[in-house]
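Render this sequence as a predicted structure.
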Amino acid sequence: MELRDVINPRWLDAEHLNNNYISASPFPHVVMEDFINETLLEKVADEFPDLAKAKDEVHKFDNPREIKLASKGMQALTPSAAYLTSYLQSDLFLKWLNTLTGIKEPLISDPYLAGGGYHEIKRNGLLKVHADFNKHHLLDLDRRLNLLLYLNKDWDDEWDGTLQLFDSSMSVPIQKIYPRFNTAVIFTTTSFTYHGHPDPLKCPSNRSRRSLAYYYFSTGRPNNEVSSDNHSTLFKEREGETFKTRRIGVKDVIREITPPILIRVVRRIL
């Protein structure tokens, strides 16, 4: 098993990428085109299910802050996606990420794919700007990195769908990244790394914005990276926006990843 089996060799020199990563604005990140072996990623894209038709293995968000679909755990992944996931959660890739980012603490992948896996946004969908939850709710690990891998062939930029990165002023996006096929974005997650897909998607009704998401964790982190020891998702209004900011709490996370029979038990406790 080697990373070159799935990662484009042009991106394997993580040490060479480190300086660009840590100096990127508005916070450390890197955008890599043609990141995955094209034949493999085409299989992943072709097998991508319609998440709107799924039931228990998908969570459907529909509120002013997020209109999107997201899978739960590994059971929703097709064989090709599961194969790719095994590499992107392996020790080989974790060591590559440590070198790329300069994070000192050993990185840990998430076997639960809590909040990760398939993501899909359909026409008029969105995800408002936010900073991510900073603790794994089951493992009590510190969330350090996001990897977003886009699966959209023949993407028309007029549909927008950009991932937007903001600084604390929230006035204009510092970076806008189109969700084109085989584009990967890796970025540091802190209480202040504001990002999202905040504008309604303008694609045709027969298309959607599809991606795979992976989150990486550690035991311990620098204190200056978080505003509190344990916070949920922090939505933040852009300049001129007036939607009601809401934190995603424990009940929301439990609903996303917990089997229905256990949800009923947890509701009684809460």
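Summary. The helical segments are 14-23, 38-47, 79-88, 91-101, 250-257, 260-269. The first helix runs from residue 14 to 23.
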